[in-house]
Amino acid sequence: MADQYAQAGEGKRPTEIPVIRWEEPPEGPVLVLLDQTRLPSEEVELVCTDASALVEAIRSLAVRGAPLLGIAGAYGVALAAARGFDVDEAATALAGARPTAVNLAVGVGRARSAYAAALARGDARRQAAAAALAAARQLHREDAEASARMAGHGLALLDELLPGGGHRVLTHCNSGSLVSGGEGTAFAVALAAHRAGRLRRLWVDETRPLLQGSRLTAYEAARSGMAYTLLTDNAAGSLFAAGEVDAVLIGADRIAADGSVANKVGSYPLAVLARYHHVPFIVVAPVTTVDPQTADGASIEVEQRPGFEVTEVTAPQVQPAGAGGGIPVAPLGTQAYNPAFDVTPPELVTAIVTEEGVVSPVTAEALARLCAGSREAAMD
Ligand SMILES: CSC[C@@H](O)[C@@H](O)C(=O)COP(=O)(O)O
């Protein structure tokens, strides 16, 4: 089956411009983002001069994906501080821009605490702003390191679970370098397998309604030179039934204390399919995505997105037609159910791979031990 699919790409960098960067032109500091809503057609930068522009970029998914949201949130606080805005107000707006990915609140909290601690020890506002920026840069570096370590642990796990090699991996949404300071979470594992010569194929779910799979993951896969194939989300069942999937690799937006995993809507059905077909369902996420304050899956707030994302197809090239500015694909006035995420219970998750190691089987106790170990290491 594999031979009929075309292989694209020749090992290029994932994008020509960085996904996020801080700059200090003479007019004042700015946060420059790769506008992910414009991919794959074009790589366009979005320049944020204040936190409210960043809040809008987060809501519109110009910047997205749990780890990157954390990094962006931290830089957003630094931006507000550097430009003399009310830092608490900016931090509250940023942390609330999207509710499900816990990394956003974690990143905002890290920079805000650094700012507050600097003021508390008597630093001037300018120095406190520098402390917030240092915290954002630190988080950015840590995420890159975590990403490399997750890739190593994840590949070792794949090799252990699938000793025959030639892995055929299915992924959903986008979890590569577009969501990270490094090469990402789940996608980074697939990339490590590709580089080690052990990835036979990456199956890429298109990920309706906003197409993070086809627009972003396929983009990254093509540029990496790996063998990949795009499928509609509803084709996954027949792919499993045909015996073409050896493992599922996905990221996470929030992992509750009991091991329930919130990720892009469509992840839970894949977990059910994987269980039925005896295929490992592996979640790859940094420890910052584990939220000990959220007890279980039912306590995770799932972001509800506007219905027009389902009732219209949008693209930068099309002229406004419906409420969201896209081409209607449903009768005008149709109501849509559009949760951005779903929650997979821990019993359907084979393993959670973090930079600190692998949790399998997934239990509240094992997760708590992992998080406690990571906190201790951070304090050393
Ligand atoms: C490390 S990526 C994990 C998740 O953030 C990713 O799978 C995802 O669901 C992103 O959703 P998005 O709505 O595009 O921000």
Nutshell version of this structure?
It holds the Pfam family IF-2B. Helices cover 39% and strands 16% of the residues.
Give the distance, in angstroms, between the N- and C-terminal Cα atoms: 51 Å
How many domains is the backbone divided into? 2
Give the CATH H-level superfamily of the largest domain.
Translation initiation factor eif-2b, domain 2
Report the biggest beta sheet as strand number plus sense, adding barrel if it closes.
Answer: 7 strands, mixed
Classification by helices and strands: alpha/beta
Q: What overall form do the CA principal axes indicate?
A: globular
Strand content: 15-25%
Secondary-structure element pattern, one letter each? EEEHHHHHEHEHEHEEEHEEHEEEEEH
CATH architecture descriptor text of the largest domain? 3-Layer(aba) Sandwich
Helix content: 25-40%
CATH class of the largest domain: Alpha Beta
Low-confidence stretches: 1-8
Spatial strand sequence of the major β-sheet: 6-5-4-7-10-15-16
Average the pLDDT over all residues and give the rounded result: 93
Number of helices: 11
What's the gyration radius in Å? Answer: 20 Å
InterPro entries: IF-2B-related (IPR000649), IF-M1Pi (IPR005251), IF_2B-like_C (IPR042529), Initiation_fac_2B_a/b/d (IPR011559), M1Pi_N (IPR027363), NagB/RpiA_transferase-like (IPR037171)
Binding site for substrate: 64-66, 98, 212, 263-264
Family: Belongs to the EIF-2B alpha/beta/delta subunits family. MtnA subfamily.
Function: Catalyzes the interconversion of methylthioribose-1-phosphate (MTR-1-P) into methylthioribulose-1-phosphate (MTRu-1-P).
